[in-house]
Amino acid sequence: MLIFKNHICLKFISRIFFIFFVIFISSGCDINSKNEKITSGEIITISKSEWIKLDDDVYLIPKGKTKDGCQYYTTYSKKKSVASVIYYRTSDNKFTINKNKALCKK
Fold first, then answer.
1. Residue 82, strand partner residues
2. Quick one: pLDDT at residue 30?
């Protein structure tokens, strides 16, 4: 009788393990291949046409707007390490980390 109970227990455990394994494997699949993944796991959903190329494989990506209406950007590179800094566009179409010099639409 003990062997029969162990068999049922092992069968149950193996099924649970299989279910977790399938969930684990399927969670790593990227459904939308148009997006890029940042190393932190964040997915970039901004179209590449909106990315601003600074250097070979270094881009500024628009991330959003502040309460003051300032568009802000962050750096991204697939191969190089980049500083995690917020950049703003100035009135002369350059970029700065100083929000006071930013072009904001209120």
1. none
2. 46
- Give the residue from 77, 35, 70, 83 showing the smallest Cα distance to 52: 77
What lies within 8 Å, CB to CB, of 73 at 6+ separation is: 52, 60, 61, 62, 63, 86, 87, 88, 89, 95
For residue 36, give both structure tokens.
């890029």
Using CA atoms, how far apart are residues 19 and 67, in angstroms rounded to an integer? 45
> Is residue 6 pLDDT above 70, yes or no?
no
Domain ranges of the chain: 1-30, 36-101
CA distance 44 to 14: 37
